[in-house]
Amino acid sequence: MTRRKYSIDFKKQVVKEAKETGNLAAVARRYELSANMVGHWKREFESGKHGEIDFSMVPVLDAEEVVKENEQLKRLLGEQALELAILRDLIKKKNPHLLKNLK
């Protein structure tokens, strides 16, 4: 089996079509390619490996969603820090000889 080389323009065309239809497997079958290869090309174009990033390929992020997710993650991190502090206090009270290991 020989390895084929595809041009950047061909890859762009396939990825654009896959993005528009939302079905990588169907586009891959149409061009007799592996769905994994089309997915790989899609990730390459989204990361900007082939030069400048095509912003039509990058998903649009809603600023409100990002802020909500950020606040949720901060709250979760705070809860975990509090749990750790409580657990350390419990260990210190029950096992004073472990005090030097926790610092």
Q: Could you outline the blueprint of secondary structure elements for this entry?
A:
Elements lengths: L7 H14 L2 H7 L4 H13 L15 H32 L4 H4 L1
Helix pairs in contact: 1-2, 1-3, 2-3
Written description of the protein model:
The structure is a single chain. This protein folds into 2 domains: 1-58, Arc Repressor Mutant, subunit A; 63-101, no CATH class. 68% of the residues lie in helices and 0% in strands. It is built from 5 helices and no strands. The longest helix has 32 residues, at 63-94. The mean pLDDT is 83. InterPro entries: Homeodomain-like_sf, Transposase_8. It holds the Pfam family HTH_Tnp_1. One of its GO terms (molecular function) is DNA binding. This is Putative transposase.
Q: What key phrases describe this protein's structure?
A:
103 residues; mainly alpha; Arc Repressor Mutant, subunit A; 68% helix; 0% strand; Homeodomain-like_sf; transposase activity
Uncertain parts: none
Largest sheet: none
The pLDDT mean sits at 83
What CATH calls the topology of the largest domain is Arc Repressor Mutant, subunit A
What's the architecture of the largest domain in CATH terms?
Answer: Orthogonal Bundle
Portion in strands: under 5%
Rg (CA only)? 25 Å
Proportion of residues in helical segments: 55-70%
Oligomeric state of the chains in view: single chain
> What coarse outline follows from CA principal-axis ratios?
elongated
Give me the secondary-structure category: mainly alpha
Overall structural domain count: 2
CATH class of the largest domain: Mainly Alpha
* C-alpha end-to-end distance: 60 Å
The helix-strand sequence is HHHHH
Number of helices: 5
